[in-house]
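Recall that a protein's primary structure is simply its ordered list of amino acids. Everything else, from secondary elements to tertiary packing, is in principle encoded there. The following example makes that idea concrete.
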Amino acid sequence: MHPFGSLVFSTLLFFEEVVIVSEAFYRCHGMLGWNGKFLRANLSTGAFNTQTYSSSFASSFIGGRGFAAKFLWDNLPRGTDPLSPQNLLIFAAGPLTGFPLPNSGKLVVASKSPLTGGYGDGNIGTFAVVQMRKAGYDAIIVEGKAEKPTVLHVKDGAVEFLDATNLWGLNSFETEKHLHKTYGRAAGIVSIGQGGENLVKFACVVSQEGRAGGRPGMGAVMGSKNLKAIVIEGTGSLSAAHPKELKEAGAAGYREILGRPNYKTWKRIGTLGTVDWANLNSALPTCNYREGIFAQAENINGFSAEAIKVSNRGCPNCNMTCGNVVKDAAGKDSELDYENVAMLGSNIGLGDLAEVSVLNRLADEFGLDAISLGNVLGFAMEASENGLTQDKYPWGSFKHAKLLCEDIAYRRGFGDVLAEGVRVAAAKIGGGSANWAMHVKGLEVSAYTCQTVPGMALAYGTSPIGAHHKDAWILAWETTHDRFSYGEEKADYLIATQHARGVFECLGVCRFPMVNVGFNREWYPKYLTLATGEEYTWDAFNLVAERVFNLMRAFWIREHNGEWSSQMDSPPPRWFNDPLTEGPLKGSKLNRQKYAELLQNYYNKRGWDKNGVPTKETLKRLGLSDVPLQLGL
């Protein structure tokens, strides 16, 4: 084992030089843009091998989420325990990942979720994915369970399973610092903290001291395999059909982003500008989603962050750097974005940004998803208010929130209950708490309350991983298009948005340029055409996104073994039962019957039956001919 030291390492944003070679160089390769190879590593046996895939597989699923969903569908038996050695953990790139073009540094981490029991994934912006591509792989598939804590070290074609006993118990920041001392600054690293080690159901995977992904418990899956970290070093080159033109188009894309009208504002405050917007629109989660406005919103917004801001951070190949790094109340760096601030601020009634920043940093160090963490903290405070907890957890108490963060990470006391997520916690403590356990399919709701936006509630209800905004954030559109309506145009817009966002999950690039500064979306088919030599359009993209979305849906249905119903796509009871009591939209709540009608409209447009199960005809149209038999259709 390499000796691990204690070098203090601070992650810096830099553009890594990626060599792109010509088509002639890769004629014998048979595939351009893609590497055409997966690495499979078995922690139980210490064996590894390379698996190739065909060009038809590549064009059918593109990469990233598409590859992960297909591989899990084909290789994971129904009923697999998510925390067993038999579960698979997949780290997947897209065909644009690593090329010098805007925001091309996204890694998808996927598995069967221990939090929800269904398909789970998330993405991380990390140099590890660039190194993985340079090492020659489009995905790393981890199976089995190591006998003791292990680091998986991949350097091009060489793979090592290294003893990580001395790293077990360290947080994710400490782990990465130790590994960088051994492998150097350029090595790509993903790791878990104590949350993953202790199998907290919403533990995530962390990289670069603040980049985190895998909300539905991907960190717990990693911990269940005794896998502390993956270190990747690649020295190879990326292949492109038209390398010169791709490089020029990438440079032109960067220039376009710099010239967008709202770029300077974005660089100042990033996603934290959403705090004021959500508060103005009665959508800012406050005190466990009871309200949509927070009296202290101005104390946790983007302008408050500017007062304590020290730098920006971003993912590889990014010139938007959405991470606002601030000095927290303990004098340490904490990387903020909207979701984390809303969930660890207004949702628990805490109006001090420096204190919110401490909770955010602890989440990253422990490897806990900050969205789910803020949700379970709000749940605990409401449970305390209702006399359902032995200890008191007052609203807005930084002291109690900080203690609970630690108790969750180490599964101590009530923290052990909360570590299971709000769905299980509500079942354990009872007292009507299921009525205000804010989740869909077991995944805690992210940072928007939806009493006044039925379309956004539908987005949460039908998200392919549980209640997450990433797959369809239609809130801004809805607030300007008859927000209280349950009309079918909302189903149309939602489906289009789900497909568009699904494309980014497959390509291996970030959606922020297009979504947040208006980057021309036609760059993306152009980039993939130049990379692969195959002609792509948004129509082709959307077909792949629909195929992958339906496959993820089928995974959920297969796991429920004939017990699937439309109730699975219902948002939390609170949005139907508890109207807002403050603000200009006071008295608003969702209408259950109208939501049910909107949901059926959505199903019809998707080609699904009344229970939300894709029909045999829909699946065959999408080229998923093996799926109907497994679903009993």
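Residues 566 and 611 are 5 Å apart (CA to CA). The two ends are 52 Å apart (CA to CA).
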